[in-house]
Automatic annotation (TrEMBL):
Pfam families: MFS_1. InterPro entries: MFS, MFS_dom, MFS_spinster-like, MFS_trans_sf. Coiled coil: none annotated. It comes from Nannocystis pusilla. It comes from the Bacteria. PANTHER family: PROTEIN SPINSTER, SPINSTER. The lineage of its organism: Bacteria, Pseudomonadati, Myxococcota, Polyangia, Nannocystales. This is MFS transporter.
């Protein structure tokens, strides 16, 4: 290996580390709300539906802002990343000083805009750092931040919130991002498409690029599967700590950290295993990425229902571990499939539109819908009863339990779509997995 190659590999590793640490902060800041949602609801006297809207509004603005990824195909990506990280960090800090529910909603909205700028742009840089034969593994490392960062958000939010209150959670969470925004602005940005076959980049508008993307079958299959998974994972990420507190009587200091620890372990195992297996299966079959991801989603669905039937906490967390492991198998494979099915000059836009779709039809709906189903089930449970304190508590527990169980349906549907897509792609790989440059 030449000195030049060694130097570039070292530089690529440094860039990957910076982007991955930022991705950890991304998911930590997203999930801080989950651990202290009950505290916020009590302070502002909110219903479950209103509490769910705090999670959904973040996703709604994240979704609306996702087309910022198109700018990543036109301008310096590191500048877009730095600006996005700075914005979401300031929004997190501002949440600590919110004086009303409405001000907190504004902070959550700004958080979504900042994180969208980052999430749609960073993967395209990683795709230019590493060749197709190792992208799934490298993207799996990058997306380890999804389970581990989320878990750290649960853990930090629970511990800090229990001892210092929910405002301190956002204060601590927002500070590190400002440092990494400055680091992001100084990274060396690789040339677009440097490790891919040359492809012409025709002139055109966003809508021209959009048309090319949606005509790619693998992109469409990927997006539908991810949207269904995101519906469930996004909803559970907001509501599971509350579920453990309300249904199983855990404290804020234990619910978030324990669930976070399970998520760390399951997410690490699932994401890294999925990245390795995904590359191997894809080398054997053009539909390998989708076979693995689809099987993981289908097998996770019954486990999600099963965990809502568990009275014993140890058994519940064992089931949750395997459910999450199966869900996170798809992280590396589906993102590698996404960067591989479009020309290099379209990757930012492909991620932008993909993120728009998976959140618009995924967790932008699920977080509030889970709260709504919980409220409606609670009302149905109390119908005809005297609303004593014990009856209300039982109704709240039963309502949220039912709402959590229903999240198994979308992942089952998403898994079936991916398995169907894997068969279709395997039969005609040249026409489906990639789109001509």
């Amino acid at each position: 290996m030449s000195d030049l190659t060694t130097t570039w590999r070292g530089r690529a590793a440094a860039i990957l580390i910076v982007l991955t640490v930022i991705n950890f902060l991304n998911y930590i800041d997203q999930m801080l709300l989950s651990s202290v949602l009950e505290q916020i609801k009590l302070e502002f006297t909110l219903s479950d539906t209103e509490g769910g809207l705090l999670g959904s509004l973040f996703v709604i603005t994240y979704t609306i802002a996702a087309p910022l990824g198109y700018l990543g195909d036109r301008f310096k990506r590191k500048n877009i990343i730095a600006g996005g990280v700075a914005l979401w960090s300031v929004a997190t800090l501002a949440a600590a000083f919110a004086r009303s529910y409405e001000e907190l909603l504004v902070c959550r909205a700004l958080l979504g805009i900042g994180e969208a700028a980052y999430a749609t742009t960073a993967p395209s840089i990683i795709a230019d750092l590493y060749g197709p034969d190792e992208r799934s593994r490298k993207l799996a490392l990058f997306y380890v931040a999804t389970p581990v960062g989320s878990a750290l958000g649960f853990i930090l939010g629970g511990l800090i919130g229990e001892h210092f209150g929910w405002r301190a959670v956002f204060l601590v969470g927002g500070l590190p991002g400002l440092l990494f925004a400055a680091l992001a602005a100084r990274i060396h940005e690789p040339e677009r498409g440097r490790l891919d076959p040359a492809s012409a980049r025709p002139a055109g508008t966003f809508f021209t690029a959009l048309g090319r993307i949606v005509r790619t079958p693998a992109w469409r299959i990927n997006t539908v599967g991810l949207a269904m998974m995101t519906f469930t994972v996004g909803g559970l990420s907001l509501w599971m700590p509350t579920y453990l507190e309300r249904v199983h009587g855990m404290s804020t200091a234990s619910a978030g950290p324990v669930f976070g620890a399970v998520t760390v372990l399951a997410g690490l195992c699932g994401t890294l295993l999925g990245g390795s297996l995904g590359d191997r299966l894809q080398a054997r079959s053009a539909g390998g990425y989708f076979w693995l991801s689809g099987a993981g989603l289908v097998l996770s669905a019954p486990l999600i229902v099963l965990l809502t039937r568990m009275d014993d906490l140890v058994a519940l967390f064992v089931v949750a571990f395997f459910a999450e492991l199966l869900l996170f198998l798809n992280t590396g494979p589906l993102n590698a499939a996404l960067v591989g099915c479009v020309p290099a000059w379209l990757r930012g836009t492909a991620f932008a539109v993909n993120i728009f779709c998976i959140h618009a039809f995924g967790d932008a709906l699920s977080r509030t819908l889970i709260g709504y189903v919980s409220d409606r089930a609670k009302a149905a449970y109390l119908a005809g009863q005297v609303p004593t304190e014990s009856a209300v508590r039982a109704a709240e527990s039963a309502g949220l339990n039912l709402a959590i169980a229903t999240t198994a349906i979308p992942v089952l549907l998403g898994g079936l779509v991916l398995l169907w897509g894997a068969r279709r792609i395997a039969r005609a790989p040249d026409g489906l997995m990639t789109h001509p440059g």
